[in-house]
Amino acid sequence: MPTESNDVERAFPVALVGLACRFPGAADLKEFWSLLKAGRDAVGEIPDDRWDVDAYFHPDPAKPGMMYTRAGGFVAEIDKFDAGFFAISPREARRIDPQQRLLLELTWEALESGGIIPERLAGSQTGVFIGISLSDYAAMQRDEPNQVDPYVMSGSAISNAANRISYVFDLHGPSFAVDTACSSSLVAVHEACVSLWRGESSLAIAAGVNALLSPSAGVGFSKARMLSPTGRCRPFDAAGDGYVRSEGGAVVILQPLAQALTENNPVHAVIVGSGVNSDGRTKGLAMPNQAAQEALLRRVYRDAGIDPGEITYVEAHGTGTSVGDPIECGALGNVLGVSRAPGDRCRIGSVKSNIGHLEPASGMAGLLKVVLALRHRAIPRTLHFTKPNPQIPFEELNLSVVSEYTELPPGCLTMGVNSFGFGGTNAHVVVRNPEPLASTAAHRGAATESREIRPLLVSAHDAEALKSLALRYAELLISPAAPPLPALCRSAATRRTHHQQRLAAFGRTHEELAARLEAYAAGDSPPLLAQGHVGTSPAQLALVFSGNGSQWRGMGRDLLTDPSIAARIERVDAALRPLVGWSVTSVLQSAEPANLSIERRLRNRRSLRCRSRCSNGWRRTGSKPTPCSATVSEKCRRLTGQAFCRSPKRAG
User: Fold this and answer.
1) Within 10 Å of residue 472's Cβ, how many Cβ atoms?
2) Residue 64: how many CB atoms within 10 A of its CB?
3) What percent of the chain is modeled with pLDDT above 90?
4) Considering the chain, what is the average pLDDT of its residues?
5) Which class is domain 447-533?
6) CA atoms within 13 A on the CB side of 448
7) CATH of domain 14-435
8) Which ranges in the chain are annotated with CATH 3.30.70.3290?
9) How do 399-401 and 346-349 pair as beta strands?
10) Measuring CA to CA, how many Å separate 452 from each of 491, 492, 506, 508?
């Protein structure tokens, strides 16, 4: 009988350094936390711009071709895409699945949130791991064969959800899509961690995405009686009658914790363990297996060296189905609940009560909820939990559903995230809050507030976007969460991409900078604010010398007493000596006024350079060059101060 082998060395924790999301009712991470903290329900009715809801609705589940629910969680304007930003033509963009478009935008946002400049990843071993299942857009395009063009296949292929990210950002690590149904995105996170542990990837992009563009899957799930007739996910509640389909996406940037600290990247949370397994043969393909779920939990916590009793909270799969919830709670209780002291219950909850079930992206929604709970040291409540499901013995299992916003005490917090696919693939990830040193790594060495004038650099792809971004910076500057001004200005200058449209605002305080940016966004031209733009050609390096020499004999000689400076001057000396014929170090050490002889040598070398460009030719008489009769080149006069170049056709 084969034995389990653990060929992956889980020797280091993995930091989540970048985060981005777009969920129902939440266009970004800040709005997502506001939604969770307020206990809002973002589920609504299917919008008219998706399909004719009335044409596909019938309350009778047996009615062919119909679905018995109008409910869903949707992202506004999911069809909108800034193709020009990614240098994609409008023709190709129309053929690209909105899921791929959303992933491109979220990847950029996640990298920027981590202070990682995307251009610097080009050619790196960055891996891309995407959880995705649906291909509604491909089916829609196949229905119009006369409209098929060269971009249809690449735009709708599931594989290109990952491959297009690798292509656009020029990433050379592993790149593939993961489809294990509802556990896809959490499996993608696990695969990203494995790739980092094995050294296959130096950085990893993990994501999940789902877009509801066609009624066909809704009809299918209605026939399987998986959807809630009442249009709400009610996890662990006696009234739980199925789940609500939702859409959205999220991206996380993963990096070895040690590397993140070295690079001063923000550490939002730390993954300390993860695992995947399968239910194997059950009573039916879609029937969960409690024993397999328990086995996965035991293995993950054993391999991570974590006592299950330490777990503060588990973000459960929690769909609100009559079969899935009792089985999941049984596994959680037997592994994480029963070993606790009396009264110390393991808390559980489900984000699906807020935003519905994002299917392949649902695990990512649960992971981000846990990351935010760790950051704010509070667990948002699970909605629609009024009467516990009688099939779940909560007291016996030592489990407690978080039904009220719950603040957590200081100290180390460890939480788990559960995710299951209806085909039997289970995934679990263990997350901890970062140590204080890690969480403040990005601000290490930040200067205290001072009255110095500082530049805040802002750039965007076009003029309108620049105004919008300036206004967002102004809002940040006057908000209570504004970072110290030196740290903000330094990050804007060194940890963000500088686009074509640019401006620099100068000020001593947050308020001064905010006022100038607000004035600019309103169309004014305030003082101490400069605007400009650059071309699309890559920047080139130029060395500019002021022309000033030393102000007194021996100036700079004392610098050589510093070993680090002396070593750098020696490197410069070694590079320049073959080119100029003299030693920088010797000149710095010398007390003699060697300036005149050096100036003469430089002038002679310029003369020789000039002679090499002359077509008429000329000769030397002794040590002096003899000009020919050609007209003097003005450029040559500027170069050498002498009339050594005579050919108008060779004027420089």
Assistant:
1) 13
2) 8
3) 65
4) 86
5) alpha beta
6) 0
7) 3.40.47.10
8) 447-533
9) parallel
10) 17, 17, 10, 5
Q: For 467-532, what is the HEC assignment? A: HHHHHHHHHHHCCCCCCCHHHHHHHHHHCCCCCCEEEEEEECCHHHHHHHHHHHHCCCCCCCEEEE
Q: Beta partners for 26?
A: 23
Contact 354, 248 (CB under 8 A): no
DSSP string, 453-469: -EEEEEEESSHHHHHHH
Give the C-alpha separation, 287 to 322, whole Å.
Answer: 12
> Which residues touch 392 (CB under 8 Å, ≥6 apart)?
236, 325, 326, 329, 330, 399
The residue-averaged pLDDT of 246-264 equals: 96
Q: Where does residue 174 rank: exposed (0-12), middle (13-18), buried (19+ CB within 10 A)?
A: buried
Contact 173, 195 (CB under 8 A): yes
Return d(Cα 85, Cα 105) in angstroms, integer.
9
Q: Is residue 497 packed enough to be buried (19+ CB in 10 Å), middle (13-18) or exposed (0-12)?
A: middle
Extract the tokens encoding 575.
């590079």
Residue 311: CB atoms within 10 Å: 23
* Rounded CA separation 603/583 (Å): 17
Q: Where in the chain is the domain with CATH 3.40.47.10?
A: 14-435
Residue 346 tokens, joined: 């393991």
Residues counted in the chain: 652
Residue 276 to residue 424: CA distance in whole angstroms: 10
**Cα diameter, the chain:** 110
Structure tokens at 450: 């001072």
**pTM, to two decimals:** 0.79
Distances (CA, A) of 38 to 129, 382, 462: 32, 11, 36
DSSP 103-151: HHHHHHHHHHHTT--GGGGTTS-EEEEEE----HHHHHHHT-GGG--TT
| Cα 404 → chain centroid | 31
User: At 448, which amino acid appears?
Assistant: T
DSSP 47: P
Lowest mean pLDDT segment, chosen from 171-185, 590-604, 605-619: 605-619
CB contact at 8 A, 254 and 16:
yes
End-to-end CA distance of the chain: 82
Across residues 604-629, what is the average pLDDT?
44
- C-alpha distances (whole Å) from 471 to each of 113, 457, 465, 503 are 18, 13, 10, 12
Number of Cβ within 10 Å of residue 114's Cβ equals 27
pLDDT of residue 611: 42
Share of the chain above pLDDT 70, in %: 84
Q: By C-alpha distance, which of 476, 320, 458 is closest to 391? A: 320
- Look at residue 4 and tell me whether its pLDDT is greater than 90: no
Residue 579 class from Cβ within 10 Å (0-12 exposed, 13-18 middle, 19+ buried)?
exposed
The rounded distance, in Å, linking the Cα atoms of 174 and 200 is: 7
Q: In this predicted model, what pLDDT tens digit does every residue of 441-471 receive, in sequence order?
A: 444 444 445 568 889 999 998 889 899 999 9
d(CA 411, CA 407): 12
Contact 513, 477 (CB under 8 A): yes
Fill in the amino acid letter for 219: V
